[in-house]
Design a protein that fits this description.
The structure holds two protein chains of two kinds. By secondary structure, chain A is mostly helical. Chain A is built from five helices and no strands. Chain A is elongated and about 50 Å long. Chain B is low in regular secondary structure. Chain B is elongated and about 35 Å long. The chains are: A mainly alpha, B little secondary structure. Chains A and B meet through α2, α3 and α5 of A and loops of B.
Chain lengths: 85, 21
Protein backbone atom coordinates (compact mmCIF):
# COMPACT_ATOMS: atom_id res chain seq x y z
CA UNK A 1 0.00 0.00 0.00
CA UNK A 2 1.49 3.34 -1.06
CA UNK A 3 1.84 6.07 1.57
CA UNK A 4 -0.95 8.58 1.90
CA UNK A 5 0.14 12.04 0.75
CA UNK A 6 -1.26 15.53 1.24
CA UNK A 7 -2.02 15.78 -2.49
CA UNK A 8 -3.95 12.48 -2.45
CA UNK A 9 -6.00 13.83 0.44
CA UNK A 10 -6.55 17.22 -1.18
CA UNK A 11 -8.08 15.50 -4.20
CA UNK A 12 -10.81 13.88 -2.07
CA UNK A 13 -13.92 15.52 -0.52
CA UNK A 14 -13.56 16.42 3.21
CA UNK A 15 -15.56 13.50 4.58
CA UNK A 16 -13.64 11.09 2.34
CA UNK A 17 -10.36 12.59 3.58
CA UNK A 18 -11.15 11.51 7.14
CA UNK A 19 -12.16 8.05 5.92
CA UNK A 20 -8.84 7.73 4.03
CA UNK A 21 -6.87 8.77 7.11
CA UNK A 22 -8.94 6.46 9.29
CA UNK A 23 -8.26 3.50 7.00
CA UNK A 24 -4.50 4.08 7.52
CA UNK A 25 -4.72 4.71 11.27
CA UNK A 26 -7.14 1.90 12.12
CA UNK A 27 -4.87 -1.12 11.46
CA UNK A 28 -2.03 0.52 13.42
CA UNK A 29 -4.34 1.19 16.37
CA UNK A 30 -5.93 -2.25 16.06
CA UNK A 31 -2.49 -3.80 16.62
CA UNK A 32 -2.12 -1.94 19.93
CA UNK A 33 -5.69 -1.81 21.26
CA UNK A 34 -7.98 -4.27 19.43
CA UNK A 35 -11.07 -3.63 21.58
CA UNK A 36 -10.82 0.18 21.39
CA UNK A 37 -9.54 0.61 17.82
CA UNK A 38 -12.72 2.07 16.29
CA UNK A 39 -13.20 4.51 19.15
CA UNK A 40 -9.56 5.63 19.31
CA UNK A 41 -9.45 6.07 15.52
CA UNK A 42 -12.56 8.25 15.74
CA UNK A 43 -10.96 10.38 18.46
CA UNK A 44 -7.73 10.84 16.49
CA UNK A 45 -9.68 11.75 13.35
CA UNK A 46 -10.79 14.97 15.06
CA UNK A 47 -7.17 16.15 14.79
CA UNK A 48 -6.25 18.33 11.78
CA UNK A 49 -5.47 16.34 8.63
CA UNK A 50 -2.02 17.89 8.31
CA UNK A 51 -1.14 16.72 11.81
CA UNK A 52 -2.58 13.27 11.13
CA UNK A 53 -0.30 12.93 8.10
CA UNK A 54 2.67 13.75 10.34
CA UNK A 55 1.51 11.14 12.87
CA UNK A 56 1.29 8.49 10.14
CA UNK A 57 4.91 9.27 9.22
CA UNK A 58 6.12 9.15 12.81
CA UNK A 59 5.35 5.87 14.64
CA UNK A 60 6.62 7.24 17.97
CA UNK A 61 4.37 10.30 17.83
CA UNK A 62 1.46 8.11 16.78
CA UNK A 63 2.05 5.70 19.66
CA UNK A 64 2.11 8.51 22.22
CA UNK A 65 -1.06 9.99 20.70
CA UNK A 66 -2.79 6.60 20.89
CA UNK A 67 -1.76 6.23 24.53
CA UNK A 68 -3.09 9.73 25.19
CA UNK A 69 -6.42 8.77 23.62
CA UNK A 70 -6.62 5.60 25.75
CA UNK A 71 -5.92 7.63 28.91
CA UNK A 72 -8.58 10.22 27.99
CA UNK A 73 -11.08 7.46 27.22
CA UNK A 74 -10.42 5.60 30.47
CA UNK A 75 -10.65 8.79 32.54
CA UNK A 76 -13.93 9.57 30.80
CA UNK A 77 -15.34 6.08 31.44
CA UNK A 78 -14.37 6.27 35.12
CA UNK A 79 -16.04 9.67 35.55
CA UNK A 80 -19.14 8.43 33.67
CA UNK A 81 -19.54 5.40 35.91
CA UNK A 82 -18.91 7.52 39.02
CA UNK A 83 -21.65 9.93 37.99
CA UNK A 84 -24.15 7.19 37.24
CA UNK A 85 -23.74 5.14 40.40
CA UNK B 1 -2.05 20.89 29.48
CA UNK B 2 -5.43 19.24 29.06
CA UNK B 3 -5.69 16.77 26.21
CA UNK B 4 -7.51 18.02 23.13
CA UNK B 5 -8.83 14.55 22.40
CA UNK B 6 -12.57 14.14 22.75
CA UNK B 7 -13.81 10.93 24.43
CA UNK B 8 -17.25 11.48 22.87
CA UNK B 9 -15.89 11.33 19.31
CA UNK B 10 -17.81 9.22 16.82
CA UNK B 11 -16.42 5.71 16.39
CA UNK B 12 -14.61 5.06 13.10
CA UNK B 13 -16.00 2.32 10.87
CA UNK B 14 -13.32 0.86 8.60
CA UNK B 15 -14.34 -0.18 5.11
CA UNK B 16 -11.47 -2.54 4.47
CA UNK B 17 -11.46 -4.49 7.74
CA UNK B 18 -13.98 -6.83 9.26
CA UNK B 19 -15.82 -5.22 12.18
CA UNK B 20 -14.84 -6.75 15.54
CA UNK B 21 -17.90 -8.15 17.25
Amino acid sequence: QEPLTASMLAAAPPQEQKQMLGERLYPLILAMHPSLAGKITGMLLEIDNSELLLLLESPESLHSKIEEAVAVLQAHQISESTHKS
Amino acid sequence: RKSTLNPNAKEFNPRSFAQPK
